[in-house]
Amino acid sequence: LLVEVLLGIVLAYMYPKLGAVYLFPNVTAHWIAVVIIFFLSGFAIRINELSNAALNLKFNIFVMVYNFLGISFVVDFVAKFFHRNEIVSEDLMKGMIICSCLSMPTNMMVVLSMSANGDLAASLFLATTMNLIGVFITPLLIFVYLGENAEIDFVRTYRSVSLRVLMPVAVGLSLRLLLPGSDAFVNTKKALFTKIRERALVYVVYTTFCVTFYAPPDGSSATQIVVMALSQVILLLAAMVIAWILLFIFFNREPRLRVVGLFGCSMKTAALGIPLISAIYEDHPKLGIFTLPLLIWYPAQLVIGTLLSSRLRRFVDYKLSKYEMERQMKYVETRDCDNDCGLG
Q1: What is the Cα–Cα distance from 161 to 151, expressed in whole angstroms?
Q2: pLDDT above 70 covers what percent of the chain?
Q3: Cα–Cα distance between 90 and 72 in angstroms, integer?
Q4: Closest C-alpha among 226, 134, 170, 158 to residue 38
């Protein structure tokens, strides 16, 4: 996916008029592609696997608050500091803040959690729930941090989001629940659905950057873009380190949850984030610049998460073995004590 996204950006740079004008991006990208992405997302939701994970209220609230509020608060401070000191342009500053207000990715979250032996049900619940509530929370957070500079028309935004996001998700979820044999069908066609969603996302990215390159320059220098990119990676690493420390404090004896929490606290979605940003800023000439920080954060979290997954799996296996050994030793001690008491 990352290679295809980069290729799409390169092609957009080479001939931007194709995607900006001839392919009618306001219809094909901002409506058709976005609707396909969210319809398939709704159709893929597995409700029956989420009920038990929903009961872990403390953990779920911790991850959601950290991801939505903690990261966005810190990024808002850093991005505005950079802008005040002319380190990044205003549009890059907005893009950093918009990226920080998004929810976590679904597929990446589940895949990395599985590879690291994390709690699969918890990762599914968090990813699904956060993406659903993110439709409402993300525009609000953007407005809170950017104020009038957010350039958000809430009536138009929520009408657009309802038609392009909520309705396709609701239709997809309804079909999943009502159609007989839908679970087996989804499991069989899971790879196909993923490919369709990824191609639709690549098309949205391609047309978005076609519009950006076709429009006049936004004033962001190459140096400012490099600084923004490095800052995104550093902020991601810092978010993961702080999250790991807090997870150790609050969920010390739950290693599988700690792994899920590490990914859930720090990751941001591109598959649903870019279509959502497109729905919020559909006619904005700087839409491509607004999505650029996300296109730095997303591959960075993929690379870091992949590098960490094997180490985290060994960590989980070690902790689970240790706790099982402690449980058995405690059982033996209790049994011996009971025997001694009985003999006495």
Answers
A1: 16
A2: 88
A3: 17
A4: 170
